[in-house]
Design goal:
Layout lengths: L1 H19 L3 H5 L12 E4 L17 E10 L21 E7 L8 E9 L8 E9 L12 E10 L11 E7 L8 E5 L10 E6 L13 H4 L4 E7 L7 E14 L1
Antiparallel strand pairs: 1-11, 2-5, 3-4, 4-11, 5-10, 6-9, 6-11, 7-8, 7-10
């Protein structure tokens, strides 16, 4: 009997030694230090505006939607007047409201605008829909690959018909980057019929900055998103139309 008990104790030694082996290397293998996939981020789909009127962003890092006309640059729309050569378009107007239906959903944004190019002005007239980050904050969008949105541009009738040169430009504002406060990219063909035209713009060096080649200096500190209409009017000309927008998302 004594020999049997001793044999049992000897058989336990491998088990006891296994219990003393450090387990940290095994646990370390469970960690993956790669960036977490953020998934798509809805910036604005305007569905939360169905019952309360004015358009707002869906992402709580951004505030209400601002619309305005400008001469030269729209970087100050929705803010106090700045000193960057921007002034209001004389007699210009733009109104932003929600409309129904949206593009595949209930609600979209409708921006109705009229622009006037003064005689002798060397600054182009434009209109913009702008969403600004909450004061003092910025958003890093470098984890995303593209900005998606649905849009179409509807021209007013003569004599205010939009010229064929009219562009919609998507701009990412980064006001803390003093030398280059906007990175921009033309949207391409918008079409002018319902349903809206889906557009996918890459979030890379396709977003141009004016003074430096490094758009990433803007994309990691975005404090506004602009949808800017630039008709390229000749002196003394006027034009108008309606920009329809929906389903603005950041995609990876």
């Amino acid at each position: 009997m004594a020999k049997t008990g001793a044999r049992r104790r000897r058989n336990l030694w491998p088990v006891l030694w296994l219990g003393l082996i450090p387990i940290a290397p095994v646990l370390a293998a469970c960690f993956d230090l790669q960036k977490v996939d953020p998934g798509p981020r809805v910036v604005a789909d305007f569905e939360n505006d169905e019952n309360d009127g004015g358009p707002t962003a869906a992402w709580n890092r951004f505030g209400p939607v601002n619309c305005g006309t400008f001469m030269g640059s729209d970087q100050h729309l929705g803010q106090d007047a700045g000193t960057a050569g921007t002034q209001a378009d004389p007699d210009g107007s733009v109104t932003c409201t929600t409309e129904r239906p949206g593009d595949g959903d209930k609600v979209a944004l409708k921006a109705v605008f009229e622009l006037n190019q003064p005689l002798g002005s060397n600054q182009p007239a434009g209109a913009a829909v702008v969403m600004r980050a909450t004061p003092g904050s910025t958003v890093d969008v470098t984890a995303f690959q593209e900005i998606w949105f649905d849009a179409y541009l509807e021209s007013a009738q003569q004599p205010l018909q939009l010229p064929p040169t009219t562009m919609l430009e998507v701009e990412l504002g980064c006001s803390t980057n003093i030398s280059d406060p906007l990175a921009s990219q033309p949207s391409g063909d918008l079409g002018n019929i319902w349903p809206m035209h889906p557009l996918h713009l890459p979030l890379d060096n396709s977003f141009r900055v004016t003074l430096t080649p490094h758009s990433q200096n803007c994309l990691d500190r975005v404090d506004s998103i602009h949808f800017t209409i630039l008709p390229g009017l000749a002196d003394g000309m006027s034009a108008g139309g309606t920009l329809h927008l929906d389903n603005i998302t950041l995609q990876n």
